[in-house]
Amino acid sequence: QVHLVESGGGLVQPGGSLRLSCAASGRAFSSEYMAWFRQAPGKEREFVAATSWSGPATYYADSVKGRFTISRDNTKNTVYLQMNSLQPENTAVYYCNTHPPLSFWGKGTLVTVSS
Question: Averaged over 60-72, what is the pLDDT?
Fold first, then answer.
């Protein structure tokens, strides 16, 4: 079994910040990497950022580099996504998963950037 529970989304004004959390368990640990993905209305799901469970490696989509930071707390089996300087185009449902992703997806957490 795998459990992925995303939280922390909400409504934020342009230029604002949010921190998302992902509580992972089960088969989520079958992969070395955990990642955040997002799906904007009418668009395909896309990769946002990834981190290794065991080392310092992190990876980002070009569109979020310098604004988003992925981190993890191994003691809590939790992965975070700190999002700064949010813009309306960042509006999406954000999901966490392994990378590459398992076929199972959680419910995600909705981030809405709007004034």
Answer: 97
- Three-class secondary structure assignment of the chain: CEEEEEECCEEECCCCCEEEEEEEEEHHHHCCEEEEEEECCCCCCEEEEEEECCCCCEEECCCCCCCEEEEEECCCCEEEEEECCCCHHHCEEEEEEECCCCCCCCCCEEEEECC
CA distance 35 to 110: 16
Strands 10-12, 109-113: parallel, antiparallel or unpaired by DSSP? parallel
Over residues 13-43, the pLDDT tens digits come to 999 999 999 998 876 566 789 999 999 999 9
Cα-based angle 81, 10, 107 (whole degrees, multiple of 5) = 70
Per the model's pLDDT, the better-predicted residue between 83 and 76 turns out to be: 83
Torsion, Cα 67 71 77 78, to 10 degrees, reads -20
What pLDDT is stored for residue 55 in this prediction?
83
